[in-house]
Amino acid sequence: MGSPFHDTSVLLSAWRDPNLVQGEEVLVAEMDGRIVGCVTVEDRGRELELVNIDVPLELQGRGIGTMLVRSVEERARAAGRQAVTAGTSRSAEGVAWKSLPWWQHLGYRVTHEEENPWTRSIGPGVREIRMRKDLPPE
After folding, report:
1. What residue ranges of the chain have pLDDT lower than 70?
2. Distance CA 37, CA 109 (A)
3. Which end of the chain is more exposed for a tag (fewer CB within 10 A), N or C?
4. Among residues 133, 71, 135, 77, which one has the least CA distance to residue 106?
5. Does domain 8-134 have CATH number 3.40.630.30?
6. pTM, rounded to two decimals
7. How much of the chain is helix, strand and coil, in % rounded to 5?
């Protein structure tokens, strides 16, 4: 699926009430009536998987992504989930995607790396870096 910031027709064609797209819940951040970020979440039982997060390049560095991640963590905690999981990629050359230090700063720890259908769709030798943040009960 293309970026919802550039191709809303793709998003609208897959939209289901209340805010589910192809089995994933979509949450958006708004500023001055404009969508400035979105995140997709999948319920994995004891955990919530943060599938995708997107903030336009020109708005990155303002805390929008952090706010979206924190809101997913709050939803997970309120629903009694034990953790939020996420993934990022490592290139065939072994270079991690630029977001890895940001995730670690937010408290996510790397659990393992794997090859899967998503990494194979990117290219040979690409790995997914799997991350997890445990949510202690309040």
Report:
1. 1-18, 20-21, 138
2. 23
3. C
4. 133
5. yes
6. 0.81
7. 25, 40, 35
